[in-house]
Amino acid sequence: MSREEQRLREAAEGIAPWRLWGPYLSDRQWGTVREDYSPNGDAWSFFPHDHARSRAYRWGEDGLGGICDEGCRLCFALALWNGVDPILKERLFGLSNTEGNHGEDVKEYYFPLEATPTHSYLKFLYKYPQRAFPYDDLLAENRGRKADLHLPEYELLDTGIFDDGAYFDVWLEYAKEGPTDMAIRIRVTNRSPASAHLHVLPTLWFRNTWSWNPGSRKPMLRAGGPSDAASGWIAAEHPELDPMRLYHPSAPELLFVENETNRRRFGWGENTTPYPKDGIHDSLIHGLPTVNPLREGTKAAVHYPLFLGPGESREILLRLSSRCFPAEEWSRDLEAILARGLSEAEEFYARKQVPGQSEELHRIERQAFAGLLWNKQFYHYVVSQWLEGDRAFPPPPASRYRLPNARWRHFYAHEVLTMPDKWEFPWFASWDLCFQAVVLAMVDPEDAKKQLLLLASEWYMHPDGQIPACEWSFSEVNPPLHAWAAWRIYEIERKNTGKGDRAFLVRIFHRCLLFYTWWLNRKDADGNDLFQGGFLGLDNIGLFDRSAVPPGSTMYQVDASSWMGLFTINMMEIAIELAREDPAFEGIVTEFFLHFGNIAAALNHVCSLPEALRERLWDPEDHFYYDVLRLPSGRFLPLKARSLQGIMPVFAVGSVPKSLFQAQDGRVRERIRWFLRTHPALEKEIVPLHATTPSGDKEGGREAGEILLSLVSKEQLRSLLRVMLDEREFLSPFGIRSVSKFHEDHPLELRIDGRLYRLDYAPGASLLHRFGGNSNWRGPIWFPINFLLIESLQKYHHYYGEEFRVECPTGTGRLMNLWEVSQEISRRLVSIFTRDGNGRRPVFGNWPIFGEDPAWTDCPLFFEYFHGDTGAGLGASHQAGWTALVAKLIHQLGEYPEPAPSSSRLP
Q1: Which of 20, 18, 94 lies closest to 62 in space, CA to CA?
Q2: Which of 808, 861, 856, 853 lies closest to 833 in space, CA to CA?
Q3: CA 138, CA 155: separation in Å to the nearest integer?
Q4: What is the pLDDT of residues 309-327, one digit of tens each?
C-alpha cells in the first residue's frame, strides 16, 4: 500500500483528518447566484469582477491557486503585482455571459499540474504577463464580436502579450507533513530576455462570517516573532479551528487589513474600518494609508518585492501549520517535505499506471486527475437564509421569492463538492457531477460515493423527489444519471478492491427510488411512457429551445425516454445485486422490468394503436429516432434532426440473469411471464428472451445465463451504427459529433405556426445566442455522451459476441466487432490530447505556442467540448469535470486491448 493509500484509509477510518485542507477555494465567487441580491436575478451585473477586490463575500471566497480548510474558514492564496497593472492580481479575470461573444470565459492561463486525493501534494502553474494586463482590450474586442457569432473568442494569447516571452511562470506547491501542517513553495521564473520586477504576496485571510450576524465572534490574524529575526509568522485564531501559523521568511513588510467591504468606494456610506478588504491593493498600488500599522486584522499578506534577471528563478518557502516551532526550525525540513510529497504522489499514480502504458498517456491521465481534484470547492448556499437575508442588513427585494430557487427553501449546502470548472462553473451540476464521481472513483471511491449521496440527501433533494440541477435553477431538469454513476462506482471499487460497498448501494438506491418516482410522475405528460425534460443539459441541440416548446404543444423526447430507459436498467441492476443477500429487493426488480418494457414499447411503437394516434419516434424509413412534437391540433410532427438524441436509445442496454425468470418468489416469475405474454412483439424485437431456452447458441452473454434488455433491436442497432460510424455523418477523427455533418450541406428547416426554425451543423463554437452562446451541441464532440456510447457498445459486445460485426468507418469495408468499435472511438477521443506527427496536440487548435514552446508544451487544458472536425478545445477551458473521463478511457485502452473476459462487468 502506498503512503497516499494509507492516508485515504486513515481518513476513511477517522484516524487522521487528511481531507481537512485542500484546494477548496473557488476560482470565482463573484457573479454567482449565491452572491446575487439583485431584484432581477442578474448575478453577473450585481457582483462583477471589478467589485470583487472591495466587497466581502457572503457565501464563500476565491483566490489564485489557493487552499482552505473544508469549511473555508481560513484561506491561503497568492497575490501578484507586476508594477504596471491597474489592480492587484488576487483572482482570475474573465468575461461575464453578456461580455463574452460566446458566453462567460476566463481570460487567463493557469494549469493544475499535480494533485493527490487527500491533497497531500498539489502543484499549480500560473502565467502572469509583465506588461499591463489587457483588461480593457479583452472587454472591448469581445463585446465588438458579439454581433457576429462566427468570430471566435478573443483570448489573452490573441492580444500578443506573451509573444516575446515577457511573462513570469509562477508555480505553487503544497505538501502535507500532517493534516494541519503544510509546506508551501512559491517559485517564480522570468521568461523574458529582459530583467523584470514582480511583487509576490502570499496572502492569508478569514472568510467573513461575522458581518452578517451581530454578535458573531470574530477571528483574528496577528504578526508574530521578533521584528529583527530572519523569519516570523502570522498567527491565526478562529473559534472553530485549532490555532494556525503561517511561517514566512523575513519580508520588508507585513500588510494587514480587514476582510470587510469598502463601502465608501461604492457610495454606500462610511466604512466600518479604515483598513477594508482592498486596503492592501490601495496601499501597494496607490500608496494610501490603508493597512493596519498594528499588524493585525482578518486578512494579511507577506510582501516580497523581487527583481529577476533574464531567465532567473527565485523561491519563497512558507509553512502553514498548527505546530509551534522554536526559532527557525519551521524551515529546516521544508525541502524534504516537498520532495517527499512529490515522490509519494508519483508512487501513488505509478500503482495506477497500466503496464506498458506510454509516459505521454500516463502524464495525460495523471493531469486529468489533477484537474478533477483541483476542481473541488467549498460550496455554501442556504436558500432560506438567502431568501430572507441577514439580520445586519436590509431584507432582499420581495421579487427574490419569484426567482427559480425560491421553491427550494429546504436546500442547505455547506460541503466540499466537485465542480465542473471552478471559474466558469463554480457550482455543482448534477449530471456533470455523476461523470466526475465515476472518474474520481478510480483514485478515491470514498469521496466519489460521498458526492453522490450529498446531492441525493434530504437537505439537497427536493421533498417531491427531484435532485437539484444547478445553482442558476435547481428546478431545471438534468439527465437522471445518479443510479448509473452509483452502479459504476460500485463496480469500479469492487474490481479494484475485491469488495463492493453494499451499504452505499442500499442508501443510494432508496434515494434514487424517490428520484425515479419524480420522473414518472412529473415528466411523462400523457402517461404514455414517453418522457419530456426540456433541454436536459443538451442546450441548443434541437431546432428550438426544448424547455420552451410552442404553447399548447407537447414534445416526446427521444433523449428523455432513453435516459429513463437507462435509469430503469440501472435500478434493476442494483436491485438484483442487493437481492442476492436480501430477498426483499426481488419484488422491486419486477417493477423495473415492467417499466422498462413499457418504455421500450412506447419508444418503438410496439402497440396496436391506429397510425394517427402513434407518437412515432422510430422512423422505419430513415432508420433513426426523432423527437416528435404533438401540436395543439393533435397532429404529430417529427423533428427530423440527425443528432445524438437519435442514437441515445442505445444507452439503455443491460443484461439480467435468466434466474430472474425462475425466481423462488412465484409472484415475480408469473408477473414477468404475464407481461411478456401480453407484449409478444416486444419480446421478439427488443428483449430477446428466446435465450431462456436451451438452444446451444454461442452468442456472448447467453452462455453465461444472461438475457439482454435493450431499447433497440438487433437490426435497429445495426441501422443506428451505420449512421453513427459514417464519417460523413457522426464519426469525426476525434469522436462522435453531437449533430451529423449531413446538416452542413442540408440544414434542417421547419415552419411551426408561421415561424421558421433552422438547425445547421456547427462543429465549433455556437452560432446562436441561445443559452448565452457558451454551450454548443450542434456539432462538437462532448466526452460524456461519447463515454456512454462506448460503454453501451461494450455491453452489446458482451451479449452478441464476435458474430456481430459492422463496418467502421461505414463504407470502408473494414469490419469490426463492437468491442473494437468502442476502442476505435476511445482512441479517437484520446488523440485530442496526444501529440501528432508535428508535435502538436489537436486540443490546442492553431495555438503554436503549446506545440513549440517548452514552457507550454506539457500544460494541457481539459475543455468542455471539442471542435467536431479539428478536435480543438472549446467552451470552459478547465472542465476537468466530465472531460476527465479521458483518464478512464486511457486506462481502459491500456488494460483491455481485447474484450474483457466473460464477465458482464464493465472494465
Answers
A1: 94
A2: 861
A3: 7
A4: 999 999 999 999 999 998 8
User: DSSP string spanning 106-162?
Assistant: E--EEEEEEE-TT-SEEEEEEEEESSPP-HHHHHHHHHHHTT-TTSPP--GGGGTTT
Q: Is the pLDDT of residue 699 over 50?
A: no
Cell of 780: 462538437
- Contacts of residue 160, defined as CB under 8 A and 6 or more positions apart, other chains included, come to none
State the alpha helices, DSSP H only, in 63-102: none
CB-based contact 366:112 (threshold 8 Å): no
- How many angstroms separate the CA atoms of 668 and 691, rounded? 19
CB 753 within 8 A of CB 637: no
The C-alpha cell 452509483 sits at: 486
Res 253: pLDDT? 93
Look at 472 and 608; give whichever has higher pLDDT.
472
pLDDT given at position 695: 32
Reduced to 3 states (helix: H, G, I; strand: E, B; else coil), residue 473 is: strand
Q: What is the three-class DSSP state of 548?
A: coil
Q: Which three three-digit cell numbers place residue 617? A: 419516434
Peptide bond into 479 cis (omega under 30): no
The 10 Å Cβ neighbour count of residue 604 is: 22
Q: How far apart are CA 489 and CA 467, in angstroms?
A: 19
Instruction: Give CA–CA dist 434/515, Å, rounded.
Output: 14
The number of residues in the chain equals 907
Task: Please state the separation of Cα 497 from the chain's center in Å.
Answer: 26
Q: What is the pLDDT of residues 391-411, one digit of tens each?
A: 989 899 999 999 999 999 999
Q: Which residues contact 608 (CB under 8 A, 6 or more apart)?
A: none
Whole-angstrom Cα distance, residue 666 to residue 668? Answer: 5
Identify the helix (H) or strand (E) that includes residue 707. strand 706-710
Note whether 481 and 519 are within 8 A (CB). Answer: no
Sign of CA pseudo-dihedral 464, 470, 472, 478: negative
Interacting residues of 748 by C-beta distance below 8 A, sequence separation 6+: 543, 640, 641, 642, 758, 759
Cα-trace Rg, the chain:
28
Give the CA angle between residues 505, 507, 508 to the nearest 5°.
Answer: 65
Q: Please state, in angstroms and rounded to a whole number, the distance separating the CA atoms of residues 172 and 184.
A: 7
Q: Where would I find the beta strands (DSSP E) of 207-274?
A: 220-224, 231-237, 244-249, 253-257
pLDDT-derived band of residue 694, with 50, 70 and 90 as boundaries?
very low
Closest to 479 (Cα-Cα) out of 687, 714, 717, 644: 644
Dist CA 260 CA 272 (whole Å) = 8
d(CA 55, CA 260): 7
Distances (CA, A) of 810 to 406, 741, 807: 51, 14, 5
Contact (Cβ atoms closer than 8 angstroms) between residue 78 and residue 64: yes
Q: How confident is the model at residue 692 (pLDDT cuts 50, 70, 90)?
A: very low
Q: Are 242 and 180 in contact (CB under 8 A)?
A: yes
pLDDT of the residue at 666: 66
CA distances from 168 to 124, 138, 410, 670 (A): 14, 20, 47, 72
Our CA dihedral for 728, 731, 733, 734, rounded to 10 degrees, sits at 140
The long-range contacts involving 545-550, CB below 8 angstroms and separated by at least 24 positions, are 545/770, 546/627, 547/476, 549/629, 550/629, 550/631, 550/752, 550/753
DSSP secondary-structure letter at 554? E
Taking a C-beta distance cutoff of 8 angstroms, is the pair 556, 617 a contact? yes
Sign of CA dihedral 892, 897, 899, 903: negative
Q: Using CA atoms, how far apart are residues 804 and 208, in angstroms rounded to an integer? A: 62
Q: Which of 393, 86, 96 is nearest to 263 (CA)?
A: 393
pTM for the model stands at 0.96
| Largest distance between two CA atoms of the chain | 92
